[in-house]
Amino acid sequence: MANLPSHASPSFGAQSPATSHNVDELSLTLNPTSTPALHSRLDDIRDDAASDRGDMTPAVPASLLSPSFTPPATPGGTINTAQLLQQAQLAGVRTDTTHTKRPKLLSCLPDVECIVRARIPTTTGAEMFLHLYHNDLDNKEHLAIVFGNTIRSRSLDKVRPGETEMDRMIRGAYMGKLRPGRVSSWTDDEKNGESSNAEVGGAVSGSQTPLQSNLNEAPLVRIHSECYTGETAWSARCDCGEQLDEAARLMSLPMETLNEVASQQSMPVPSNAAGGVIVYLRQEGRGIGLGEKLKAYNLQDLGSDTVEANLLLRHPADARSYGLATAILVDLGLGADSNPHGIRLLTNNPDKIQAVEGPNREVVVKERVPMVPLAWRSGGKMGIKSSEVEGYLQTKISKMGHLLQ
Ligand SMILES: [Zn+2]
Fold first, then answer.
1. Of the CATH numbers 3.90.650.10, 3.40.50.10990, 1.10.10.60, 1.10.260.40, which one belongs to the domain with range 112-157+212-283+320-400?
2. DSSP 3-state helix, strand, coil percentages of the chain (rounded to 5)?
3. In 3D, which of 356, 323, 387 has the Cα closest to residue 221?
4. pTM assigned to the model
5. Which of 147, 183, 264, 298 is the most buried (most CB within 10 A)?
6. Ligand 1 centroid vs 239 CA: distance in angstroms?
7. Which range, of 37-41, 138-142, 263-267, 394-398, averages the lowest pLDDT?
8. What is the rounded average pLDDT of the residues 368-379?
9. What separation in Å is there between the alpha carbon of 238 and the centre of ligand 1?
10. 318 is catalytic
11. What is the C-alpha separation between 328 and 322, in angstroms, rounded?
12. Which of the residues 43, 320, 331, 344 is marked catalytic?
């Protein structure tokens, strides 16, 4: 992991041994078996506390100075659980000693850049465009799953110095559709070249007409955090897989089907006329990583609920953060600067609304669209059936303020 940026693993930021400040009270909260690495990290914290420069710490960007931390690796990576536990402890120390600085957490959004986009035909017949993002907070590949043809990434469409038309098409910065022999990223010959170079570097003017007529309604947005167990390994401990499927279904249904579904369900079904985005954040296990999540599952089998298990492992109940999602939505043209309609957020978690809107309301949530579990909606005929998921949903309601109607 030697190529990680210095902030990716906050326990091991390079430090000068010369730092010594008189904040000895910190040591009262320390684990007496601290390792040298821990000491070097504590120098960092002392330095923060004494110099009052908090979020200016070179090794840790401002947006990481929070009780939340992002694990250094996603599944398949090598996570040292002892280090993670230390990080959690240190996150606690940091929170206690710098609590007056916490509001600065979200003082600005991270920088994000869409590196590549590709069309993905799906098993349901709908098409989506998968956007892969890099950012200046962590080294993970966060994703945006975009439904509809009107939502485009500014950073992707921006012209890069020295690139050829082929380069642009390979990284997905093209209008219309790709086909064998196509030579221009800007002009889709099949459509008689309706777009032009006027689009360079800014909002894509070639698609303005359909965009504006479709934006009579705010786009549907779902912020989804990676859940390997629930999405890939068939887990019935949580409903993440079902929620991801349902969000994609709502965003990809043709309008006529939507109306039909709405009449069948005798409940409002949100229209997807303005397109939809699922921002897929790589923060497994509410941000604690897969290894720690599996330990939490064992604690749950020993009698803890999902919140207690995280706390027993010295992690925050919820270590996720959403600044990256806000930044990605702004890049996709759904921010307040370019989208007067706001967004409709698919969530049961009211805290998520404020988190997604960002520090200066860079994104405006016009409406919250609830995600009622399929099993509840269908009277138990469909959806996940397990005692574990019932307990999980119950804890979300009683301890995490979720609204499940
Ligand atoms: Zn899950």
1. 3.40.50.10990
2. 40, 10, 45
3. 356
4. 0.67
5. 147
6. 6
7. 37-41
8. 82
9. 5
10. yes
11. 10
12. 320
